[in-house]
Amino acid sequence: MSNKVSIVIINKNGEKFLKRLLRTLINSCSDYLCEIIIVDNASTDKSIDIINEIYKDLNTSKHHLKIVRLKRNAGFCYAVNVGVAFSTSQLVAILNSDLYVDDGWLIPILKIFESSSSRIGVVQPLICWYQYPEKVQSTGLYADVIGNYKGNQFDSKAILAPFGAAYVVRRSAFMRIGGLDPIYFMYGDELDLGLRMWLAGYMVILEPSARVYHYMGGVTPSSTYFKYLKYFLMRRNQVITLIKSLSLKHLLVVYPLLAIYNIFRGIISRETFRAILAAYMNIAHNARYIITKRRLYLKIKVLSEDKLRRWGLLRSLM
C-alpha cells in the first residue's frame, strides 16, 4: 500500500519546535500511511538528536521517516526541492519546522485533491498563530500588479499564492512548473510558486477547515545583518518573479513602475537603499539565468495576467 501523502519539513535549528511538530504530525496521520521527510539545512543545534528520539516512538509499520542532511545551508527553496525529489507520494505537504498541526488537518485537503479537478495544484490550510491558536495568521496571499503581496482579505477560497509556512502540492504539477527556484534562497518563493501555478493552468486554493499553528519567525535569526539580507532577498526576488512570469507587454509597463516604487523605498534609509541597490546589481549578475528560466516558464504558460486580474488574483497597486 502506497503512502497517501509525503510530509516534507524544512529544518534549520528548529530544536525548540520539532518535538511538538513531530508528535502532532504522527497523531494526525494515524489513520493512513504517510512518510515524513526532514531536510536539515546544516543545523548546529540538537535537531537531529530530537528527531531520532521521536523516531523511536514511531509506529514504523505505518509511517516512514527520512532525514536528509545538507552539508551547508542551501536555503529554503533548494531544501524543498530536495524533499520533494525524495518523496514517493503524489501529494506533498511542505512545512516549516516552527509550527504544529491539528489532528486530522490533512483529511479535508486530501479530499479536495482526491475528489476535485486535477488542475488543483496547491492547497493551503488555515494558518493560525502558535501563541494565540484562536487567531488567524494567514488565509493565503494576493498581490498587486508590481508584485507587492499582502494577506488574503477578500474572503475567497481561491488565492494567488499560499503562505509559505504550510501548504500541500500536487507533486506532478510542482515538478511540471520546475519546483521552487533555488536562486530565491528564501522569501517571495511562495508568490513565485503561486503565480507560476496559475499561469500554467493550475489552481491554488485555501481549505479553512484544515488548521496549523505557526510561530512567525520562530527559527529566523534577529541580527542586523539578517534584517538587511531579508530586505535584499525580498526586493530582489520580487523583481525576478515579474521578469520570469509576465508577458513582455505587461513587463514593459510594470518594471518601470516597480523601479520608481523602489526609488521611494530607498529614500527611507541608507540601509534600505543599499539593499535595493545590491538587489538590482545581483539581478544584473544573474541575468542569463533569469532569462533562461523565463523561457522555460513561458513554454508552459497557458493563462494571461489579464485573466488573473479579472478573477481578482492580481489587483491594482496597493
Write up what this structure looks like:
- With 318 residues, the protein is an alpha/beta fold.
- It has two domains: 5-214, Spore Coat Polysaccharide Biosynthesis Protein SpsA, Chain A; 224-301.
- 43% of the residues lie in helices and 22% in strands.
- The protein contains eleven helices and twelve strands.
- Strands 1, 2, 3, 4, 5, 6, 7, 10 and 11 form a nine-stranded mixed beta sheet that branches.
- A hairpin with a 6-residue loop joins β6 (120-129) and β7 (136-138).
- α6 packs parallel to α7.
Query: What coarse outline follows from CA principal-axis ratios?
Result: globular
Domain module count: 2
Q: How many H/I helical runs?
A: 11
- Helix content percent band: 40-55%
Structural class: alpha/beta
How many strands in all? Answer: 12
Largest sheet: 9 strands, mixed
Q: Architecture of the largest domain in CATH? A: Alpha-Beta Complex
According to CATH, the fold-level topology of the largest domain is Spore Coat Polysaccharide Biosynthesis Protein SpsA, Chain A
Write the element-wise H/E pattern from the N-terminal end onward.
EHEHEHEEHEEEEEHHEHHHHHE
CATH class of the largest domain: Alpha Beta
Q: What is the distance, rounded to the nearest whole angstrom, between the alpha carbons of the first and last residues?
A: 49 Å
| Mean of all residue-level pLDDT scores | 90
